[in-house]
Amino acid sequence: MATAQAAKLERTIVVYGIPDGLLNTDIMVDILIIHFQKQKNKGGDVEDIVYPTSTQGVAYITFEDKGVAENVLKNEHHLEDKRLHQGYPLKVSLYGESVFTCVSCTLGLAPLRAKCSLEDLIEDLKKNLPKLSFGPLHPNGQIKVQGPFCAISALQKMLLSRIKHSCSEQHKNVKKKVPDHMASTSQTKSRLSTSPTKSLEPRNDLGQDASEDELSVSLDTDIYHYMKKFRNKLYQKNLEQCDVVGNASVGDEITTIYLRKKTPKASASQLERAKDRLESLSAELHSSLRKERLPLKGSTKTERQNRVQALNMVCTQYPNVLVAEYSSHIDIIGSSSDVFEFTQEMKKMFRNSQKEPWK
After folding, report:
1. How far is CA 208 from CA 142, 189, 204, 211, 224, in A?
2. Mean pLDDT for the stretch of residues 198-209
3. Distance between alpha carbon 50 and the CA centroid of its chain, in Å?
4. CA–CA separation, 271 vs 268, rounded Å?
5. According to the CATH classification, is domain 2-97 in 3.30.70.330?
6. Where do the structural domains in the chain lie, given as residue ranges?
7. Euclidean distance between the first and final Cα of the chain, in Å?
8. Of 46, 87, 222, 241, which alpha carbon lies 20 to 30 A from 120's?
9. How far apart are CA 142 and CA 199, in angstroms?
10. Cα-to-chain-centroid distance, residue 16
11. Cβ–Cβ < 8 Å for 1, 344
């Protein structure tokens, strides 16, 4: 059974950038199937489609043939149909590429408006990060972005690099105008922050340059919770050995850990070393863990209670599985075999239910 499940995942892709709320769900499913069955889109026979999912604008499509899934990934996709008033660019990735198949966040780019054209910036980001799906840019400078966590992380680093470059140029100009004894009070501190509302916003605050006193590491929130529960000793050891402390800002999908020097003796290189260690640990977990999602949205109170009771019973059998409960869904994270067996046990408990909770 585990082999069959693994084979199915190899034939499954994640599709994001789907326009939500425009059409009836059945119609949108029909449009998606037609698109991914067309030869010009390198498609083929669709075995199954899951839409809508707990992540807005995301669908899971399973093909009958693994080769079709591989070919679809190589092609650019533009969703067009006479039932849609315009075309919509779609992004696709293989389902098993990441423990977190798709992250949704909102970029707040307003602080960069004075430095560059936001439209040109977004076009440049699209070119350099083709796996990401960008929504329309709103007048307030916000734009919705979806894609694999690794691509979202690369986006954050790219924006941070641009901010640092901008600040560096600003510092040069300040030094030309301000006497040397006043220059230290005129520096700008910039960082990309993550809020619990899934917003990534470049912030400019007056203060000391953050490059020597603080670094940030962005993690998938589920990876962070798994790390803290099952690898906390290693997590703390990495920080202590580098003479660094970490303060986590936990968001729904992305968690940012701000690293600071623990003592005055700590150096900038120790901050870099701590960051590298946490990123390596995160990468290790990303490659070894898998996640399944149990949707809760629309469930009755009784259904929710039954699910929680079932989860508690199954959890005792799998001590190395993390169960993360949210208002709209429950994420189950662990090794591929544990997650597969865990979900099978859950399905058994709900086999007599009228509504299958696991999709």
Report:
1. 27, 6, 11, 9, 28
2. 36
3. 19
4. 5
5. yes
6. 2-97, 102-200, 290-349
7. 17
8. 87
9. 9
10. 12
11. yes
